[in-house]
Amino acid sequence: MYGEGNKARPTYLEASSTIFRERRERCKQESEIYPFVDFIMSKKRGLSLEEKREKMLQIFYDSQDFFLLKELEKLGPKKGVISQSVKDVIQSLVDDDLVAKDKIGISVYFWSLPSCAGNQLRSVRQKLESDLQGSNKKLAELVDQCDALKKGREESEERTEALAQLQDIEKKHKELKNEMVQFADNDPATLEAMRAAIEVAHQSANRWTDNIFTLRQWCSNNFPQAKEQLEHLYTEAGITEDFDYLELSSFPVISSSHDPETPKQLLVEDQA
After folding, report:
1. What is the DSSP code (8-state) at residue 154?
2. What is the CATH number of domain 46-112?
3. Which of 168, 248, 257, 261 has the maximal Cβ count within 10 Å?
4. CB contact burial 120-133 (16+ within 10 A = b; e otherwise)
């Protein structure tokens, strides 16, 4: 159990000392290695946009100075922000009013002070508080309206009966509307509109008939040697010997029986 010599230490103490000594050495090595590993992992992982924004803002806050974009692109990598992304990060800060910019001559300068961020946050807070008050006020108004609408609408036997009657009336109204659609052809206004449409169509047809006669006369006068070819062309186009102006009396005005199942009949109206 004891080692050799008068002052020899117990064997188990010697073993414990060896274990503790090895553990201290291992911890020392790990303490030297871990920071390096963390650095490598952070380089590999990269920074999020929010982290980049914080680091670029820190440049302004630490210096409390103004910078050109090219200067920020040189300072960014020192904070872990690659120079290629500095411009986009700065622009996002400008859009959020966390960084100010101004053009002086041909140069554009950027700056931001810690107080600017505080003012911005206070402004945002005031706006949110104002929006919250407005929302609470609107909510209270809606609650009051809801309570007012509930009055007189409590569940009761009388109300249930009235709702049932309302449903019956709405159903009957829908049926009557469908029936009115079936009788639409007998509506005086519809018939008058049809007469007006027939009149317009009659005038248009005769106007084109007149144009066709004029064109035929012009062709006959200018191409007398092509009379047979022209007649053949007219026939193919449907312009036959009986082609003439249309008489309105030959056009019917549509009328129908009051029975929606009865087929529509043609009523010839003499306009003479």
Report:
1. -
2. 1.10.10.10
3. 248
4. eeeeeeeeeeeeee
